[in-house]
Amino acid sequence: MNIVEMRNINKSFPGVKALSNISFSVKPGEVHVLLGENGAGKSTLMKVLSGVYHPDSGSIVLNGVEHSKLNPRLSREGGISIIYQELSVVNWLDIRENIFMGRMQSKKLGPVSTIDYAKLNQDTKKLLKQVNLDKYEPNKMASELSISEKQMLEIAKAISFDAKCIVMDEPTSSLTESEVKKLFEIIRDLKSKGIGIVFISHKLSEIKEIGDRISILKDGNYVGTWNVSDLSEEDMVRLMVGRELEKSYQEGHGSFGEVVFEVKNLSRKDGKVRDFHMQVRKGEIVGLSGLVGAGRSEAMEAIFGAVPKTSGEILLEGKRLTIHTPYDALKNGIGLVTENRRETGFFQNFSNKRNISIASLLKKSKFGGVCGLIQEKNEKEMAEKAKLDLQIKWAGDAQLTKNLSGGNQQKVILGKWISAGVKVLIFDEPTKGIDVGTKSEIYKMMRRLAENGIIVIVVSSEMPELLAVCDRIMVMAEGKVRGEFDITEATEEKLAMLATGNGG
Amino acid sequence: MSQGKTNKFAQFWDRYSTVSILCIMILVFGILRPKSFLTPANLVKIIEQSSIYILLGLGEFFAILLGGIDLSISSIMALSGALTAKLMVDFGFSPVLAILVGVVLFGLGIGVLNGILVTGTGLPPFIITLGTQAILRSLVYILTNARSVSGLPTSFQTTIGGHFLFFPVPVMIALLTALVLSLFTWKTQCGRNLYAIGGNPQAAWYAGITVNRHTVIAFALSGLCAALAGMVNIARLAAAEPNAGTGYETYAIEAVIIGGASFFGGVGIIPKVIIGGLIIGTINNGLNMAGVSSFYQQLAMGILLIVAVTLDRFFGGRSK
Questions:
Q1: ipTM entry
Q2: How many CA atoms lie within 13 A of A276 on its CB side?
C-alpha cells in the first residue's frame, strides 16, 4: 500500500492554474524525486500534501485513509513531514527543545508538573543516533550546529513525529559534497526502515544517485512518472523544460560594437562569488542563468557595491571604476533593479515623483546629497517623462508608489535609473510577479535601452525569459561562471545542463 | 456612520489632526479659566514656555524620521547649558563665543558622536542614546559639582532670554530654527534622503544613498537643537541647573508623535512638530491655570498621546 496517494489534484489561484490533474504517490522505502523548473508547481503540490493548501479537486489518501479536508495537523498525523529549504531550526533553543518543541514529556513533582529532562535526553539521544549526530549532547545549542547538522536535526525531528513520508525540499542546495554523502547515507537508512522520501532537487547527478522513481512537473502540468534508471539526465532536462519558446525580442542581432563594460576577477568576501568575469559589448544584452544560489544576484550586488568584495576590477568605457558602495556605483553610472521591489526597490512612503527622482538628485549632488536644492519643476518633468517613456499607469505623480500594481512599480523603479542617466543597468529577476503584458513591455524597454547604448545585464531564473531577450547568456554555478552561449546556439537544455553541473 | 462621512473625517483628521488638538485644548482651558488662561500675556507665556519643547521636538524629529529615537537630548540640553554657563562665568568667554563653543560646536559634536556610535556599532539608537543620556547627565553633575551655575552676563540674559520688538527671543529662536530645518527637509537633497532612509533603509542603500553619513547628520541636527534648547533654558532661568530638562525627552517624543510623525520613520513634517510642542506647552500651562495638581499632568499627557495616535491609526493615511 502506498503511503501517499494523490490523484488528479487541481489547484487554481486567481488568474493562475497552479496544478492541473497531478497524480503523485509514494511507496514505503522509496525515494521519489520531484523535478520541475521554478514555478512548475512542486512547492504548491507539497503544500497541498502538507494541508496548507486545499486542492480544488482530487483525492488525497494517506496510509489508506482518504482525507477530504486535509489540514497541517491531519497531514502530520497521517505521517507526512516536510523539511523546507529554509530550515525551521530555532537557534536559541538546544537540540532536544528543537525536536520536542511544544510536546515535551512532563512529570509531576508534587503539585507542579515539570519537564522530564531525563526522559527527554534519553529520547533525544536515540533520535540523534539515527541521524549520525550522536556525538552531540541533547542540550547542545542549535546555533552551534552547521547547516548540514541542522538538516539532520530536522530529519530527527521528522522521525520523532513517526513520519512515514519525509519531504525534502532541495536539501542539498547548501551542503558540501561530503555533507551530501552523509545525507544520502541517512536517506538510505530511512529507506531501509520503510520510510518514503520525496526528494526535490535540481541537481540531476544527485537524482540519478539517490532516486528510485521520478515525477516531472511542467507549468503546473503532470508530465509523467518513470523509474529513475530508465531516464538519462538529458531526458530529464528535455521533459522538464520542453515547451514552446516565448516570442523573441532580439532584432538586428550580431552587429555589436566593442567591449564597453568589463568585470574581471570579482570575488566576494563571503565566498558566494569567486573569480567572476564578464564582458559586454555595446548594444548587447547579456543574461545570467543558473540555479537559485548559483551566485548570479550575488555577483551583481558586488558589482553594484552593495556588498563587500575582496577582489575585482570593473571597467566602463576603458575607465577603471572604484566602487565600494551603491553610491559609488550610481556616480559611475551603474544602476541595479533589485529582485525584491518592496524591500530594496522603492520607498513605500514616497510618491511616484519622489521615487523616480531620488537617484537623479543624488547623482547631481556632492557628499551623497547633502548639498544642493531640489528643483521641483525638474522633478515633475522627470516624472512626466518617465511616465510617457515607460507607459506607467498611475493616478498621478503624487500617488504613493506602493499603491501601484507590481508591474507599474517595476516601471517606476526603471524610471528611477533611466532618469539618473545610468550607462549600465542590471536587472535582477525583472519580471518576478509581473503579468505577461507588462513583461513584454519591459523586454521591449530593455532592447530599446541597449539600442541606445546602455549596457543591459539580466539575471533571471526563467530560462524562456533569457532566451527571449538576451543576445548572449552566461551560466553560473556555485559562485563561478561555468560557460556562455551565444543566443543562436543557446537552448534550455544546454543552459540547464551547464547549471546543474552536467556537460559544458 | 456612513462610509462617506468616515472618509471625510479621515481626510480632515489626516490633514488637521494636530491643529485640531491644539484648538480643542485652548477651547477647553479657555472655558475652564476664561479670565486667566485666555489673556494675551498668558498666551505669549505659553508660546515662550513651549519654545524649549519645540526645539527639543525639532531635534527628536530627525531621530524619529530615520525610524530611530534620541533619548539623550535632555542630557545634551543640560550639559550644553551648563558648559555654556561655565564658559561665560568661570572662563570669561564672551556670550557669542560661549554660544559658538558650548552650543553650536558642542551640540553638533555630541550629535555626531551619537550618530557614529549608532552607525558604528549597528545597535538600535534607543540603546546608544539611553547610554549617552546617562553618561552626559553624569558629566553635567561632574562639571557643575551638582550646583547650579549662576551669575550669567546680563547681556546674555537680556538678549537670549529677553524680547525683541515685544517678541520673546526664545520663540524667535525656536521658529527660526524650525524655518531653517523646514527648508532643509523640503528643499534639500539631504533632507529628502532622510525621508527615504526612514521609509526604507535597505532601498535607500540600494538607491545609492550613503545611509551612515545621513544618520550621523540626523543625530548632529538632533544634538544641535537640544543644545539650542539648553541655551534658551539657561537664559530664561538665569542659571544652569544640573538637573535641567530631566525627562524632557518624553515631551519631545510626544511633541513629534502627536505632530503626526510615524514612529517607524519616513513620515512627518516640521510645522506639525511646532504645533506638537505648543500642545505640550499648552497642557502644562493650562493644567496649572486650572489648578490641577501636577500629579495629574503626566496623566493628561499620557492619555492625549494614546488617543491622538489611536485616532491616527484608524483615520490617518500615514500610519498604515
A1: 0.84
A2: 32
